[in-house]
Design goal:
alpha+beta; Alpha-Beta Plaits; 2 domains; 5-stranded antiparallel β-sheet; 5 strands
Length: 178
């Protein structure tokens, strides 16, 4: 890799670190091509960027940032990075489901969300169980709709009660209710 290629790679990495909402660091030692291809496909489906990068280039890309101090202990050996841009839990969810079928083939070194470092357990148990973007939207929509639904029920209550009263009066007078 010549100097221009290194500068381009550093710039690309810097851009990814700037845009990310979360990051998962993986130890991919011992993984075969077929397995990593499946993992890449799962990441792609979830909108996650996956890349194997040299630790020295990553350190150069993070130079002068707080993230370098946080990630430095994890940057050893063969490291793969999974960046999430929209849904912070997307990469962690993919890794967690991947680990169910491929135990021991890939290791989680840690992760980062909003500048906070997570250990491997934090990634697979906390970050992976966070509600996703769509789940949060659905929850917000349900919360916003609840008062309107109650308001409509309150508006309908007098008419409904009047109908019950008429029905009771009709039965009292010897009519049949159908």
């Amino acid at each position: 890799m010549d100097k221009n290629q290194k500068q381009n790679a550093i710039g690309e990495l810097k851009q990814r670190f700037d845009r990310m909402t979360s990051l998962v660091l993986l130890d991919y030692k011992g993984i075969n091509v077929e397995t990593v291809t499946k993992l890449r496909a799962e990441f792609r489906k979830a909108g996650v960027e996956y890349k194997v990068a040299k630790n020295t280039l990553v350190k150069q890309a993070l130079k002068g940032t707080k993230l370098l101090d946080v990630l430095a202990p994890h940057l050893r050996g063969m490291t793969a990075f999974a960046w999430s841009y929209e849904d912070p839990s997307a990469a962690a969810k993919v890794v967690k489901s991947f680990l169910k079928d491929n135990e021991g083939k890939i290791g989680v070194r840690g992760g980062v969300i909003d500048g906070t470092v997570l250990d491997s357990k934090g990634v697979t148990e906390q970050l992976a169980t966070m509600p996703g973007k769509d789940e949060l939207r659905a929850s917000l929509l349900a919360t916003m709709q609840a008062p309107l639904q109650q308001f409509v029920m309150l508006l309908n209550a007098p008419a409904q009660n009047f109908a019950y009263l008429l029905d009771a009066k009709h039965r009292e007078m010897g009519g049949t209710s159908e």
